[in-house]
Amino acid sequence: MQKLKFAILGTGFWANYQIPAWFALDGVELIALYNRTGTKAEAFARQYNVPNVYDNVDLLLDRHAGELDFVDIITDVDTHALFVEKAARRGLHVICQKPMGPSLETARRMVETCQSAGVEFYIHENFRWQTPLRHLKTVLDSGVIGQPFKARVSFCSGFPVFENQPFLAELEQFILTDIGSHILDVSRFLFGEAASLYCQTQRVNPTIKGEDVANVLMKMRSGLTCYAEMSYASILEREVFPQTLVSVEGSKGSVVLAPDYTIQVTTRRADGQRETRYLTATPPDYPWADPAYALVHSSIVDCNRNLLEALQGQQPAETTGTDNFETIRLVYAAYDSAARNEVIHL
Ligand code: 89V
Q1: Start and end of every Gfo/Idh/MocA-like oxidoreductase N-terminal domain (predicted)?
Q2: Domain 128-292+321-345 belongs in CATH node 3.30.360.10
Q3: What is the CATH architecture of 4-124?
Q4: CB 125 near ligand 1, within 6 Å
Q5: Is 74 in the pocket of ligand 1 (CB under 6 A)?
Q6: The ligand 1 atom nearest the CA atom of 161
Q7: Do the domains 128-292+321-345 and 4-124 match in fold?
Q8: From ligand 1's centre to the CA of 124, what distance in Å?
Q9: Ligand 1 within 6 A of 165 CB?
Q10: Which one, 22, 143, 220, 338, has least CB within 10 Å?
């Protein structure tokens, strides 16, 4: 199959992993890089043998639109809409990092722009591609715990995330956009769409602008109650960054995604006694992954693979713009709920 040619827009911290994650797949050729500060893009171009480097995005797109199949946007959220529009206008398919846009209205416009340009629009939402979460979903789908009625999806950490990603400390809306977009997407992936939600937020760290704690209680359309909790202010006995911990209770048993990728499935035997089976769902190791983020970095490969196979017409993408709009809708509904101290009906 012919390789799809693509350009990367934005060569900050995340490009250190997004680029090698693309190279872990056959079927793509990276032909151009853009970064606002051109020297950063030049360093990546030297490291990965990328032939074209720009500090002007229009120049890149004007010169290469004819040969490009898609662009992968890895810039900060504020430039997502602009770059999506520029690429779509030139007939290029678009992959864009989460969170999709800085407001629900902007996100809606991004989806519409791509629809009217007739190009595919995918969001690089990688958490649902983590090995333990995929295994957990398989357990749920097997029916072994019966009909799930309550769940907790938890990302609580004291990891110094601002050291590698200082811009996160400047966001007026922090944890719900950064981690919430992942955790609420994982909740949708596992339990389907939400019917209503209630959220409370807090800022514990006084040196950052946005909220670093958010507690979201959702009633899912299935009837299940899902408590999604996230915090970057948690000083816990066990630091598990960047693991998402999940527990689900169903009519016939429960399943827990515990630290170290352990999945515990508890059911009743015929004699009424409980029994627990343990599985381990260890993610693949990649030499380029930062050990502190290895779980997340490995999921970039699987997310990219799904999007690439969709662009090649082999299978549908999971995290299309239309699908991810439902996640971003939850993110902004959560802010709305916290601001009004009200339940939001979706
Ligand atoms: O994927 C992300 O949003 C990253 C991290 C895993 C550190 O939160 O910012």
Answers
A1: 4-121
A2: yes
A3: 3-Layer(aba) Sandwich (3.40)
A4: no
A5: no
A6: 7
A7: no
A8: 12
A9: yes
A10: 143
Beta bridge partners of 192: none
- Please report, as a single letter, which amino acid is at residue 163: E
pLDDT (average), residues 223-237: 98
Question: Model ipTM?
Answer: 0.93
pLDDT tens readout for residues 154-206: 999 999 999 988 999 999 999 999 999 999 999 999 999 999 999 999 999 99
Give the per-residue pLDDT at 1: 80
CA dihedral 34, 122, 117, 33 (to 10 degrees): 10
Q: What are phi and psi of 68, to 5 degrees?
A: -80, 145
Answer yes or no: is the C-beta of 178 below 6 A from any ligand 1 atom.
yes
Residue 278: Cβ within 10 Å count: 10
Report the residue among 296, 297, 298, 304 best suited for mutation to probe ligand 1: largest number of ligand atoms under 8 A from its CB: 296
Residue nearest to atom 4 of ligand 1 (CA): 178
